[in-house]
Each structure stands twice: as structure tokens, then as C-alpha cells.
Amino acid sequence: MALSLSPCLPHTTYLSKALSTSKLTTISVSFNNPLLGFKPVKLGNNQVRCHAVTDLKSASSLDQSKGEGDDRGEEESKGDRIVADYNWTDEWYPLYLTKDVPDDAPLGLTVFDQQLVLYKDGNGVLHCYQDRCPHRLAKLSEGQLIDGRLECLYHGWQFEGNGKCVKIPQIPADAKIPRSVCVKTYDVKESQGVVWVWMSQTTPPNPEKLPWFENFARPGFQDTSTIHELPYDHSILLENLMDPAHIPISHDRTDWTAKREDAQALLFEVTERTDRGFAGWWGKEKDGSMPNFLRFDAPCVLQNNRELVDKDGEKHYFTGLFLCRPTGQGKSMLIVRFGGTKRSPLAKLFPKWYFHQNASKVFEQDMGFLSSQNEVLMKEKVPTKELYINLKSSDTWVAEYRKWMDKVGHGMPYYFGHSTLSPPKLPAVVEHAPAGLIAGVSASSPAKGGIGTMHAPNLANRYFRHVIHCKGCSSVVKAFTAWKKGLSAAALVLTALAILASSRQWKTFLVLSATLCLGGAYACSTAVAMNTTNFIRVHRRL
């Protein structure tokens, strides 16, 4: 089976670690939800299995009511709302892919509106601080690394691993640096190729909350991982990633699987709801089965998994993993990881950068829709049930996610739930020179304090959404650019020699060589454009 690498294609599933044990049971719930279109079927032992109703002619297929829904909906209709104990800081958030953390420069990142700086010391150990020098509030992510210490480039103050200031050039030689001169630190952990940060300054890090993905630890499991910065809210992003219904339409012919003629009603079965998220199975109504397993875990982890048994009886596991980080109002960062214990031979023929640019194309196809959706939510400032028309045969996971937000949103800086909301209290801050934006090229091509690149720092620009965050693609762009210049120069020299040559044989040889060099330069230029140029949708008359 060819594994698709569309970032929002939830069609590869496996049994997660939690559900492979005692949690793989159908929970006891009471359903009669017009929003989700569930029909309860008694199973015995007080269990209820919920099947999606897909008759779109029925008025109940649309979310037009205030919801008699599940247990939560019933309580809401009585004026009561279930509220879970939740604090957004008492969570692990995915910061970066370990392989892409710069070795020679600090990296400026954010979680909601909290600005952080991440860097490696001289021993390769990761450290994370508040991105603020205690001297005059300059951003440390605009600094540099000297002997494994982080230096603020404003006045040269230096800080080591525990946040202690160890050098102030402006104090007398015999003076001691006060212990109070330090920066706020955050706990970070590296796990399965991802750097995670614990945001609380009062609650000790909880190792049990650190995500662990069983499939990624299986023998023979290989994945393709990419990272993307996106210009819309993390909740909009998560909605998009857990929405399989849009894929055949929005991503028609983007890869080997998405085709608009495959758009159809879907089946859903919710098997678990907790204060930490939800999980369940889904599939195509036409197939009559639900082989795909989706799990959402707080604060922002989504996975789509599948198990397949080959003709020899061997079981293979496939995972689409999405690690989302809220980076402020109207912004988010996403780590996408597609992998499995078996790879398609066709996929091995393509370089990794090809899949990376294809993933960027998928996000660009949705970007206009999601950005406008974000704008409407911010403008209208009403719960999503007042704006969305949710189909029971396509939007089950979206409804589940927004209802989960109803339960825990009180513990977030802001949120838009199904029935409740708490909009941002302050307008978004737009930075004209975002800190750490170009950290990946800081040492080899100094660019601190300005743009310093051929592209504008705009999150609608593929170069700044992905390439600067990916060491592999950055190296590819640099290499192809260098080859393009070299081949172009060689073609020019060969053409000049061909003009000067007196022998017809030499002229022919030199002209052919120049032509080959020009062809190579064009190929390199195409490769650079594939990695840095946005997808432009061409409307078709069908």
C-alpha cells in the first residue's frame, strides 16, 4: 500500500497504546444527538454502540438545534455545563523536531503568547528560557552562542544552562554578579525525535503527560517528519486535520489517493470521551466499515492510525501524527509525522524534500479557507454552534473537539467552543522582525536584526513557513542554488569557448556541453522553486 503524505489525510491507523489495553471498550453513554446524527443501539451490559445516520434528506442531519446531544448536551440544556479541571500551562507542548534545532544559534518560539528561546549548549544539551533579557528586555533569541552560553547581543550579557547570568561586560572587574540576575527557565524533554516544553512555573513537570507513541517505537517503523508555521489559530488547524471529508475536494489529485469523485458520507463511532480528549473509529459509508482510528489528546496531539495485514498474515502499522502548538492569536506551528512499519517501494524513489514540498502544497490549498474561517470567528465572537452547520456524516470529530473546548476552555488564554467561548482580551501583536525567524542561517550567513534573505518574512510564504525551520530543505535550497549558479557560469564559459573554437567538432562538443549545463541549471532552478514557491490553485470547469 502506498502511504500518502498529505498532512491532513487521516487514513492511516493503528491501535494506540491506551486502547490496546483496557480502554478498547465501548463506553456507556446516552446518545440522541441531532448534531452528530447518532442512533443508539443497545448492546447489553448497559453499553450503547453509536452508528452515524447518513440520510442527508433528514433535517436532523444538520446542527440546527441547540443540541439535546449526549450527556453534556443534556446538562447544557438545563443550564449546567460540565467543566473539567484544566490549566493550559500544566501541559507538554511540542516545540520543534530535534533534528532541526540549530547547533549554532538560539531559536525564538512561542506557546500562546509566551515567548521562549531554545538553544543547545556546548555539550549539546537543550535549554529553554523566557525570551527576555532581564537587563532591558531585549530578545535573547536575537543573540548568539559563545562557548555554549547564550549571549544577549544588545549589551553582551551571557547566561548558562540554569539561567544564571555569568558575564556582564559593563561591571567592574572586581564586582560580583548578583544571584537575582537570571532568566526564567522552562523544563524541556526530548522524546521520539521531538522537543517538548512544560509551560508551568508552579507545577512540577508531569512525566505521565509526556506523549509516547507506540508505533514509533516498533521495529522497522520509518517516518517522514515536517514542520510548518501557519497563519491561523491552532483550533482551526486541529479542526482541519480531523476532517477527512474535505480531502477529496480540497486536495483533489494532490497525491496518489485524493480524488473528488470519492467524496461521500462517512461513518463514525466515538469510543472514548475524557477530560483529556476523545477517540473513535471512522470509515467510508460505501465500504461499510471503520478501519481508521482517530485519537485527540490534550493539549494539541492528534493521531490517525491503521493496521493492515498483508497476504502473508503479517500485521503492519501506519500512523499520521499531528503535533500542534498554539503560537498566538491567528498563528500556529505544526509538526507532521507520517510513517509505518512498511514503506511503498514507490516512496523510496523520491527524496525527502519532495514529500516536504508536497506537504507544504497541501497546507496552501487549505490556507485561504482556514484564514477566512479564523477571521469570521474573531469577528462574530459567538460559539461555533451559532455559525457552523455540522453534518452528522462528515463533521463528528469537529463537533467533538469544540465540545471538549467547552469543558476545558476556561483554563486556556482564549477559546471558541461549541456552546461557549472566551475571545482574546487583547489584540494580536504583529512583529515586523520576529525574533529567531532566521536562526537557521545565522552563523553561515549572519542576518540578525533584519530580513537578510531573498524572501519577505510572511507566513503565507512557503520559505518562511517551512524551509527556514527544516535543516534538510534549507540545505537542499542552498545546494540547488549553488549548483544553478555554477552550471550557469559553466554554460557561459562553454558558449564563449564554442564561439572561439575553430574546429567544428570542438564547436559541437562545447555547444552540447553548454546546453547540458543550461538544462541542469534549469532543473536546479525548478527544484528551488518547488521548495520556495506557493501553490496557486487553478480553477477548472468540470
UniProtKB/TrEMBL annotation:
Principal location: plastid
GO molecular function, one term: chlorophyllide a oxygenase activity
Region (Disordered): 59-78
Record-linked Gene3D superfamilies: Naphthalene 1,2-dioxygenase Alpha Subunit, Chain A, domain 1, Rieske [2Fe-2S] iron-sulphur domain
Descriptive protein name: Rieske domain-containing protein
Biased composition (Basic and acidic residues): 65-78
Annotated Gene Ontology cellular component terms: chloroplast
Matching InterPro entries: Cholesterol_7-desaturase, PaO, Rieske_2Fe-2S, Rieske_2Fe-2S_sf
Annotated TM spans: 482-502, 509-530
Localization per Swiss-Prot or TrEMBL: Plastid, Chloroplast
Protein keywords: 2Fe-2S, Chloroplast, Iron, Iron-sulfur, Membrane, Metal-binding, Plastid, Transit peptide, Transmembrane, Transmembrane helix
Domain Rieske, residue spans: 92-197
Lineage: Eukaryota, Viridiplantae, Streptophyta, Embryophyta, Tracheophyta
Keyword S-adenosyl-L-methionine: no
An individual GO BP term: protein targeting to chloroplast
